Amino acid sequence: MEQEVLEFDIGLGGGGSSGRDGDGDDDANIGLDVDEDMADSPAPLLLASNSGGGGFGNGSGEIYLPEGDLLDLEPYEGMEFESEEAAKAFYNSYARRVGFSTRVSSSRRSRRDGAIIQRQFVCAKEGFRNLNEKRTKDREIKRPRTITRVGCKASLSVKVQDSGKWVVSGFVREHNHELVPPDQVHCLRSHRQISGPAKTLIDTLQAAGMGPRRIMSALIKEYGGISKVGFTEVDCRNYMRNNRQRSLEGDIQLLLDYLRQMQVENPNFFFAVQGDEDQALTSNVFWADPKSRMNYTYFGDTVTFDTTYRSNRYRLPFAPFTGVNHHGQPVLFGCAFLINESEASFVWLFKTWLMAMSGRPPVSITTDHDAIIRSAIAQVFPETRHRFCKWHIFKKCQEKLSHVFLKHPTFEADFHKCVNLPESVEEFESCWLSLVDRYELRDHEWLQMMYNDRRHWIPVYLRDTFFAEMSITQRSDSMNSYFDGFVNASTNLNQFFKLYEKALESRNEKEVKADYDTMNTSPALKTPSPMEKQASELYTRKLFMRFQEELVGTLTFMASKSDDDDDIITYQVAKFGEDHKSYFVKFNVLAMKATCSCQMFEFSGLLCRHVLAVFRVTNVLTLPSHYILKRWTKNARSSVILEERSSDVYTNYLESHTVRYNTLRHEAFKLVDEGSKSLDACNLAIDALQQAAKRVGLATKNDGRTTLVNGRIKVGSARDESPANTLNHKMPCQPLSEDDMDKKIREVTNELEFASRKCEVYQSNLLSVLKDIEDHKLQLSIKVQNIKISMKDGL
User: Fold this and answer.
1) Tens digit of pLDDT for each residue in 388-399?
2) Of 176, 201, 333, 347, which alpha carbon lies 20 to 30 A from 79's?
């Protein structure tokens, strides 16, 4: 047969043998999702037919194959190609027709100039995996791949001629394994390709917030079958991930510029980048504004780390730290941008966040169910109780057990009851066994894994730890809710900054509104109980309503003494006629301490109706102080401290931003309330606000230098702050220079100002002490009454 030269117009993409002339075998999957049956091959070639010819090296990243009879040819020795890439593309198209995958095996280089002069293309099942490689024997393999190489000898060898053309020097047709049928050939590594139109459709659907699974369903419907799509869901997922990575690397500089500007405007603004500044574009970033750091000092007992936005559905790898304030509203403790999601990165993030929060770890933390996050938390917060978000687990359950949901409509309700309703560990264990047996799920791998982790998400195991939730069964309000309505699946980084600031502003407005409602309106009382009136004066509105619900609920419960062990009396508490469902309250009369088997106080910080029922029958008329958590009270943000050791404490107190903010807000609320009563009052209030704004502006221009004269703030320079007018020149008449006189006047003025401030603090704290004394007297009288009652019962 006469030697024939096949001229292919080829433009090779980046999926072939670049920098990888060996067999490319690997035992671990790092970064991208990879199918097991493609593990032994190089990255996929991107192929597309070219009916119009086209030129070589067009830079489009696609390979153009000939059409017609040439595609039906079988390789033979002596066949010539214009280039090595053309030979490889031809052999790959032949492999697609026959039903196997190809890869580059070996090459020879010229001793003269190092150029490749010979190539061998082989079946992907050629050779055997080397299990003793140095790069794998000394490290643990977390995701071992199945062995796919079986020693197949099928291959095509080509070498370059003096003319520059490449000629087939060897061809082995036979395989030692079964070939893949045509309807499965798209699963082979070297034949998986994402065409230009498919990429466009993926980009459009990803921008609309769709995940890889739904996008693949749309592509299968569009192309008329998975085999015609030409790639798998794994390829789609990797393409979307790479897209997002490239986009983030381009936009991350915007985030860094924004954070640097925030720090310039406020030195208390905290942000950190993992690693060196040079690596900032591919590293994790954390930041916390001053208000977030202040929030943590008051409400940092329980924290939620929300990683919802890491999912493919969202375009932002955004993870906020949140908590719950005294109104039950979510508050922010800082935010992170997660480019790298390794365990070391999460350890860095948690350590950095802890440093920004003054090194005080929370009592509890709630996260999504994630092994990497779990390990990092165990390292950084060894004493913190870690909980998995139950709501996310329920959503995952719908995915993992979808066949059970479809087959058994009652399963979802039974599953929720089994998780939420048991009152004891024994009751839960019995209920769980009954559930998995009824629905034949004992061997379900995911469900068994969740059972093994039950101490991290089943409520009955978590009730002894504070999570700031109003009930055992509710979903955490802080989980995935702080930025709800602002950040969504279509949000990109350019839009993020404005939406982030809007979310902060909106949350702040809601807290101010809740503060106003709490301070300026009184809730309706439902009982004549002194305890209810006391709670209405201490708790915020939302927390009082929740407490009132428990207090009113005591009317349906009976408490009877079941055991008396000297100081501690045990009461059995149950609804009328429901003795089979009882709660047990242990009450120490002398210490005025009670614990209930439901553990609601330990979990939420509010007393349950069972303890309140015991208080009712033992004539405890008011709440003991140790059952009033400051974090739920109107004064949760108050930070008054009585200290006599140094003047710095008083100065810091009076100059504290939080105290100034709360004082101004309280006075502003009073002015708004009075000013809204009539038109004249409104005009006067507006005029007063405008005058105050001018004086505040003047103070700001004078660098905030102020002095306290006769209980009023006077703005001016340091020399204007002289108290000469206040002292009426009643200084001793002795010869002093002008500088000495000014110095003496300033010293006396400072002493007067300090004394005035000290008196104000003493006055404030004295009132508080007097109130505590009255409360203590009341408690003593109640104890005396209780002792008298106990003595009568004993007689």
Assistant:
1) 999 889 989 998
2) 176
